[in-house]
Amino acid sequence: MSYDNDNQSLKQKTAQGLFWGFLSSGGTQLLNLIIGIFLARLLSPEEYGIVGMLAIFTLIAGNLQDSGFGVALINIKDIKHNDYNSVFWFNIGVSLLLYVVLFFCAPLIAKFFHQPCLTSLSRFIFLGFIFAAIGITPNAVLTRSLRVKEKAIITITALIVSGTVGVVMALNGFSYWSLAAQQVLYNVMICTGRYLFSRWHPTFHVDFTPVKQMFSFSYKVLITTVLTTINNNLLTVVFGRLFPALSVGNFTQANKWNTMANQLVSNTVAQVAQPVLTRINDDNERQRRVFGKMLRFTAFMAFPAMFGLALIAPQFIIKAIGEQWINSIPLLQILCISGAFIPLYTVYQNLFLSLGKSDIYMWLCVSQIVIMLIAVLACHQLGITAMVIAFACINILWLLAWQVFASRLIGYKFTSMLRDLLPFLLITVVVMALTYLVTLFIHNAYFLLASRILIAAALYAITMKLLHAKIFEECIEFIRNRKK
């Protein structure tokens, strides 16, 4: 494959972006792991369940305050200060309006979940999305210029500060308020860091013309993002309405570890996918090559990470956070299987956004949420586990719908998808099966946990090396070059 200077520069920026994206995601998830272990040992499933009930409201409010304009800013070819400035003030206005609405809706939220304490708790937690709105525009500035290193520093610093505060509060008996304080402080720190690194500042001369011009694209992204949020948190809402806080807490714990693991890959790819694909959206052949390579890289990371977590879930949950969470183990294992495919969605979604096809993006997500809701509710009588299985199956199978439109848009065929993904999937399944069999005789939980991680990682790396997997070789080469 030959590249001109501009192409080579883009390739280098992409590699650097993926490297720092991985460090950012890896550092983030490592800190989340440490903080999560401390908090899970200090708090009960019921306390986690109470905060978990509010997750969907916080996330949707965050979607609404952005209104899709963060994505729209990244897609603009020749961007000006007025574009950033108009989006900044629009988001501030929307976030303040939403907070007022949700402030008065807090008693209704508490009544819906049969938890009176949610009135005051939700009013505090919802403060976080005001700060999140302030940071949207400077985040777009950083993302457009592929400044992933700076974003990594911001995220890790915010996690350390907010996580420390959360743990200290939990130690001092603040119960679920420690989780709430951690969320709000995290948003404050992220907002502050983005302004310091982006060096972009708003002005009071406001012209909303750019917002109007972006609206036809951004409102579809908004609808899609809200629906994706609903889809990802559908079970939390259903469980919160139908089951006690204990059940919600077990699912919330399982879903938290699943999300942390798949976001390690998703966030790595998301840092660079849309900016890179947008720059080459006028070259169909090149975009097809880059898209396929991104899928291979994502599969190379996602399948072993998620299937590996499913393999070690029993030992990890019991020894890391305690036997009180034992009922979350089967839920985590089921979620991990579908979670292995979630990062692939990120690549497809960023492809459609880079092509300005927010309408296709929107309708695919609308269809998925409808089918998901029908499938989950149909399994209600069979219990929580059956509902989670239905949720997982739809998430896996719906990837085929995204593939149909990728084929139509850039000519990326179904056979190409199989060629890019199946080798990594099959190798991962074989590696995990062998690891399971080899470690059956080990009875000490700590030794079993460490053995499965090391053996699976070694077998996967050796297999990639023996098969001369290009993605693996390029990763090793990049790491070696950085050491020189």
Notes on the protein architecture:
The chain has helices spanning 5-42, 45-52, 55-66, 69-75, 81-113, 118-125, 128-134, 136-144, 148-171, 177-198, 209-232, 234-242, 245-279, 284-321, 329-339, 342-354, 358-378, 384-397, 399-410, 414-438, 445-466, 470-483. With 484 residues, it is mainly alpha-helical. It has one domain (13-483). The longest helix is centred in the N-terminal third of the chain and has 38 residues, at 5-42. The two termini are 24 Å apart. Residues 1-8 have low confidence and may be disordered.
Topology:
Blueprint lengths: L4 H38 L2 H8 L2 H12 L2 H7 L5 H33 L4 H8 L2 H7 L1 H9 L3 H24 L5 H22 L10 H24 L1 H9 L2 H35 L4 H38 L7 H11 L2 H13 L3 H21 L5 H14 L1 H12 L3 H25 L6 H22 L3 H14 L1
Radius of gyration over C-alpha positions, nearest whole angstrom: 22 Å
Which spans of ≥5 residues are poorly predicted at pLDDT below 50? 1-8
Number of strand elements: 0
Gap from first CA to last CA: 24 Å
How many domain units?
Answer: 1
| Morphology call | globular
Structural class, by secondary structure, is mainly alpha
Q: Sheet bearing the most strands, described?
A: none
Helix content: over 70%
Short summary:
With 484 residues, the protein is an all-alpha fold. 84% of the residues lie in helices and 0% in strands. It has one domain.
